[in-house]
């Protein structure tokens, strides 16, 4: 028999990770490790470098804004109401387009990589999202923590690649 967990706003974990605001709607603990779901507000300029997940599949559903994704060699525009699946083992990244922020639901399965976000975040009550990328020292720390969770960083953030291509 399985049980379901309902979370209400006061119960949800909110935190700031690399300038983005995360609200965890379903945690790995809630789901026995099967998945994690976070609502994320991502500032333009705060996108992660291109990377590969060794263990997790990821699905992103855009709630507000427009995002361009790189999945392998594909470039895909995703707008509010659309989603994209980013399978494990495939290089991917994204760029926030046409607005200062984008808002999305991110689903990770299994949910184990969620811990890397917690390990590198600050409770939202103690911080405000920052614009732009993390400092070189912060970026080094982020990459080390995520590497321990099976994430390999493989290139610059997608906005840097898009800017070079004009």
From TrEMBL:
List the InterPro entries hit by this protein, alphabetically: Cupin_2, QDO-like, RmlC-like_jellyroll, RmlC_Cupin_sf
Concerning PANTHER family, the annotation shows: PUTATIVE (AFU_ORTHOLOGUE AFUA_8G07350)-RELATED
Q: Which domain of life is it from?
A: Bacteria
Cite the Cupin type-2 domain residue spans from the record. Answer: 39-105
What species is this protein from?
Capillimicrobium parvum
What is this protein called in UniProt?
A: Cupin type-2 domain-containing protein
So which residues are the signal peptide here?
none
Lineage from the top down? Bacteria, Bacillati, Actinomycetota, Thermoleophilia, Solirubrobacterales
